[in-house]
Amino acid sequence: MSLQYLTDAVASDDREVLIRYVRLHLGDGDEARGRQEIDKAWIEALKPLLALPPADREFIHDTLATKDPATLAHLFFDLHFYLVKRSGEWIHDGNL
Amino acid sequence: MTEHAKPPRAVFVPFMMGHHFGVPFHRDLQRRIILEALDRLIQAEQSGDIHALPVTWAQARREGIAIERELGMRS
Amino acid sequence: MTATSNDREQLRPGLWATVNDRYPGSMITKSDLVPLAGLEKPLAQSRLTFVSTAGVQPKGTLPFDVAHPVGDYSFRRVSSTAAPADLEIHQLKYPTAGANRDLNVIFPIDRLRELVEEGVIGGLTPDFFSFIGYNMDPERLERTLAEEIAEAVVADGAEAALLAPA
Question: Hey, where are the domains in chain C?
């Protein structure tokens, strides 16, 4: 299997290999940019919560309680892209 | 990249990603690229041949801008 | 690893090696060549299909999965009679500025139909085939997506295929 190096990294808990892969995905092949993108997403997640607006906590609770791990992990990636888009600094223009 | 993938026949265009058939509204260039590729069905002599299109990206863009001006899409 | 040509100027020298270094084993590499299959009839009597990794999809359908870290191994059928206005692109990894103004720069559906009307191409398959280029497991790609499209293209009566990347 061609993703063997990632499977091996999971087995040996090589966290550097795994987080590098995530940074590359989020940074369009640029690991340093990927780090910045991760920070950007979290900053964007913080902003709407500062004023403590009402949030649909029942939806969140039910989703976390009923959905499978793969769906929730996928949602985590989707939320990353949603949040970085909100920041107005969208890096994914295809220029590698 | 094309050399590594080794398609049986290929046309290489030196264009920006996302623009393999040229530039917007440049109908003649878009047609030409398709026809050059389809011509490889007859012209390619051996598997893995890569034929380069003798057009530069700068040229394609210049022509595209001129076409858009004619169409009134640019001032 | 395959040596690249020395007499052709590389636009992005070392790109294949760079990508393969960052994503080990993700880059497709072939050591053997596909035997050339000749056209049995002139192009003007042949049915052509179009296969693209631009991620074009019918408007309003579920977007290709661009968030998934390992990529999307599905393909969509795009009717060869579709108007560009009926199609959309949700992509991250290539610039869509040109395509957003004129889809034909990446998915030349109008141009292909014109060539059929002019008699240059005999006909088009009822559907074209669309997928995305972000799939980091080439073994899975070859085993699933590539095989499925190859079968579908033959089943749909294609006599020639035009393939284009994003």
Answer: 43-164
CB distance from C161 to chain B under 8 Å? no
Q: For residue C77, with 0-12 CB atoms within 10 Å meaning exposed, 13-18 middle and 19 or more buried, which class applies?
A: middle
Identify the helix (H) or strand (E) that includes residue C60.
none
Q: Give how far the C-alpha of residue C63 lies from the chain's centroid of Cα atoms, to the nearest Å.
A: 17
**Quick check: C151 and C159 in contact, CB under 8 A?**
no
Convert the pLDDT of each residue in A36-58 to its tens digit. Answer: 999 999 999 999 999 999 999 99
Q: Where are the domains of chain A?
A: 4-86
| C106 close to B (CB below 8 A) | yes
Interface test with A, best of B1, B17, B19 (most A CBs within 10 A): B17
Q: Report phi then psi at C33, rounded to 5.
A: -105, 145
CB contact (8 A) between residue C105 and residue B31: no
Q: Tell me what pLDDT residue B21 has.
A: 96
| pTM of structure | 0.90
Q: Residue A20 — very low, low, confident or very high, per pLDDT cuts 50/70/90?
A: very high
Which chain C residues are within 8 Å of A21, Cβ to Cβ?
23, 69
Assess contact for B30 and B21: CB atoms under 8 A.
Answer: yes
ipTM comes to: 0.93
Chain C CB contacts of A1 below 8 Å: 137, 139-140
